[in-house]
């Protein structure tokens, strides 16, 4: 297949087909990003409804049952279906470019991972229209979820199972990609920090998701067949669910926050115009956080009665994990220190992130003290703490990185003025919403309550918190407006949009060709693009090979078909216990049949990809960039 044919303009139908069948990491990155944004908006809307309900005492804006559904779906969606895919969007869009690769190791699996995530997420959200959403909290503790009537919890279990399989596949893919596909000269200690954090985060996914998968499977057979893993009246144990969930759930925090750290470690050196301070200590701190992240899960369970020995061990481990995190904070500050700072939109997110995240970390160390946790557990103090970590760390990173990487992902730039307005709305709203919740918690307001009596001293603080949530919502709406306006702006067709890029992804002119690099780059040190620029190399890259044919993978519709099969099968499993729905078993068989058939088709098909011939590359780049190609 000739590359020039691929570069031509296509109609809507052809473009849609292209996206449904694509295995290109850049297109999948955009799809992850847009899907994540959709679920972020849904989860944010759920949060806004909850804050309106709690704005004044004795409110009846939403009923108690609906409040529980909103609370459950807000937490589940934000962590599993918004933050995770948004970060995967950046990983897909950027990591192969940073390491000088043409795609990920398993492009087919990359597509399968996306479609499993997306259809699992869609399945879970259909619960709102099919008899009620999950209502046992995002942690879905067994004692609540086993006795939850209706099919809400089944939607949760099946949706997360499908979606989690997609995440696990993607995690394995990134590990293999980063270990085996780095450009010549790109040693481990020359990798950009975002690549490092992606590697460690993917390793955490590899070890953290199986316990969740096992827990969800136990929950599924408990609800479908009465297996009694978690029913204490039948010899089961509710606490087993908490262990399985948190052995996954605590590393999950680091699965999300490490890539956020990586994104800020890319942004800060570029706008401080200075090499990242303490690179090797940052790498080892990342590895240490990943390692210690598995040793702290039971700090979520101090009040379950594990005994003083277990509590003490987990308290010490929780305090220890603050040390490598603190190292990172000091390294960021020292990178900024003495730098020639440019306050751009991505940089102001980084500057806002450091104090916000530190505040979240400090309250985390407070709760590591088991006796204090007994007081604070299940109060609004906990809500304040983890939102400071998740919004102050992860969401600010996603918003900052969206501005930063927009030129690479979309070949457009977002409006800077509007970007600053978005930042201040969101940042002020965030602190207004959650700072005051620390005090609500200290005053004894329990979390997960749908209303409260007047004159307990909580009225004003809840009102202020809700105003903050409205400001955050305005910020997000303006951000989406900025994204839509950027589509109307003219294409950039430039390399190194921010003018101070340091790593390989800035060395390619946008729009990035579908094969990324026409020749594999040779990496001659840390910050390879910075080195080339300072040596006066106009191409920004030294090549490790002459211009030759490029081997690329074929597109495939099979990942989507496999995922649709599981989506259909999930409805069969969902309705199987119901006596009045005998057809459900056939739905289960048909769905699994579709998936298995697609897998068999795939295994019989020798998909060897295709070659872009070297004589087609120069004309294609001239068509893409005008005469002169990618110079």
UniProtKB/TrEMBL annotation:
It is an enzyme of class 7 (translocase). One of its GO terms (cellular component) is plasma membrane. GO terms for biological process: aerobic respiration; electron transport coupled proton transport; respiratory electron transport chain. It is a multi-pass membrane protein. InterPro entries: Cyt_c_oxase-like_su1_dom, Cyt_c_oxase-like_su1_sf, Cyt_C_Oxase_1, Cyt_c_Oxase_su1_BS. Keywords: Cell membrane, Copper, Electron transport, Heme, Iron, Membrane, Metal-binding, Respiratory chain, Translocase, Transmembrane, Transmembrane helix, Transport. The keyword Heme applies. Pfam families: COX1. Gene3D superfamilies: 1.10.287.70, Cytochrome c oxidase-like, subunit I domain. One of its GO terms (molecular function) is heme binding. Its EC number is 7.1.1.9. It catalyses: 4 Fe(II)-[cytochrome c] + O2 + 8 H(+)(in) = 4 Fe(III)-[cytochrome c] + 2 H2O + 4 H(+)(out). Pathway: Energy metabolism; oxidative phosphorylation. Belongs to the heme-copper respiratory oxidase family. This is Cytochrome c oxidase subunit 1. It comes from Ureibacillus massiliensis 4400831 = CIP 108448 = CCUG 49529. The lineage of its organism: Bacteria, Bacillati, Bacillota, Bacilli, Bacillales.
